[in-house]
Design brief:
The chain has helices at residues 2-18, 30-48, 52-56, 61-66, 69-76; strands at residues 79-91, 97-108, 111-125, 128-132. The protein has 148 residues and is α+β, with helices and mostly antiparallel strands. The protein has one domain (2-132): Roll (Nuclear Transport Factor 2, Chain: A). A 4-stranded antiparallel sheet has the order 1-2-3-4, with helices on both faces. Strand 2 (97-108) and strand 3 form a beta hairpin. The radius of gyration is 16 Å and the shape is globular.
Length: 148
């Protein structure tokens, strides 16, 4: 019973971590994707290498204000990234926002998850691409507060 519960909890945590909102259904701008693609690869590789300071530096300014470096480092160490593949890059016509779909392989609580979908939202600040931290989502399986 405990094993099933632990497996379910691990799967739920994994899903909460990898899901992020949004998907732009606009045509990609290929000339600007190359630099974005390199940034995505570097961000993902920093996570695989466990270089959490470097990974945090890829966050856009609003995300760095919301998520302190220390809190990111504590949270990030619970996951072990093993690999990734960029599935699709969709850029807005303005060229300063994009949605990137990535498949990730991670280990979490002793379980390996391969090819988990992750949608990343990227923005351009001062001519450079930065990823937006997904807004925290409430766990639908967590105990709820009693209503008065």
């Amino acid at each position: 019973m405990k094993s099933n519960r632990r497996t379910l909890l691990a799967a739920i945590c994994f899903l909460v971590l990898i899901l992020s909102a949004g998907c732009a259904a606009l045509a990609p701008v290929t000339t600007k994707q190359e630099t974005l693609e390199e940034r995505v690869k570097n961000y993902m590789q920093a996570q695989i290498d466990g270089k959490w300071d470097r990974a945090w530096s890829f966050y856009d300014s609003s995300s760095r204000e919301r998520v302190s470096r220390e809190s990111y480092l504590n949270r990030a160490r619970k996951l072990s990234y093993k690999g990734f593949a960029i599935e699709e890059i969709t850029m807005l016509p303005s060229g300063d926002q994009a949605t990137v779909k990535v498949k990730i392989d991670i280990s979490f609580m002793g379980y390996d998850f391969k090819g988990g979908p992750q949608t990343q939202n990227w923005v351009k600040e001062s001519g450079e691409w930065f990823v937006k931290e997904p807004q925290s989502r409430k766990n639908p399986f967590a105990p709820q507060e009693k209503q008065k």
